[in-house]
Design goal:
Glutaredoxin, 157 residues, five-stranded mixed sheet, 5 helices, alpha/beta
Length: 157
């Protein structure tokens, strides 16, 4: 009888430990998911609606947004793109409400990638409010990307 009570006590203790660990993981996952929601996945249709109607190439670039934007053209198979993802998510949280962050999958949105001339990925397209977009391709340090985003905000006022 004492052995059964001891075993039940040990099992109860172990289950409590795993439950606490699971709750900690759940809160970490929620933080990660909420940060990732700050970076919106963009399609051709949403690009035309929220950014610019690229089908009318004769018109000058006229950004439709109310905040400057960063467009990131990527591919799932691209290792440098995957390395940049946590940096982009972190900066999206840092600049929330000041800069809009969008991701464009080059494999799924071929027309859009072609319009943006995404020959190398990741491609960063900095979209100020009243100027032509500025493009940069390849990976960059977090500090460099942060500085470019701050410059984008200052130029968009």
């Amino acid at each position: 009888m004492k052995q059964r009570i001891g075993i039940i006590g040990i099992l109860f203790f172990i289950s409590c430990c795993f439950s606490a660990k699971a709750q900690a993981l759940d809160s970490t996952m929620i933080d990660t998911i909420s940060t990732q929601m700050l970076v919106k996945e963009m399609t051709c249709r949403s690009f035309i609606k929220e950014i610019y109607d690229y089908r009318r190439r004769s018109t000058p670039w006229l950004y439709k947004g109310k905040h400057p934007a960063l467009l990131v053209v990527y591919a799932n198979w691209c290792s440098p793109c995957r390395r940049m993802t946590p940096i982009i998510n972190k900066l999206a949280a840092e600049f929330d409400g000041k800069i809009k962050f969008y991701r464009i999958n080059a494999d799924n949105e071929k027309d859009l990638a072609l319009f943006l001339k995404a020959t190398y990925i990741p491609l960063f397209v900095f979209v100020p409010l009243r100027e032509e977009p500025i493009k940069c391709s390849g990976t960059m340090a977090e500090e460099t990307l942060r500085a470019k985003l701050k410059e984008l905000i200052l130029n968009s006022k």
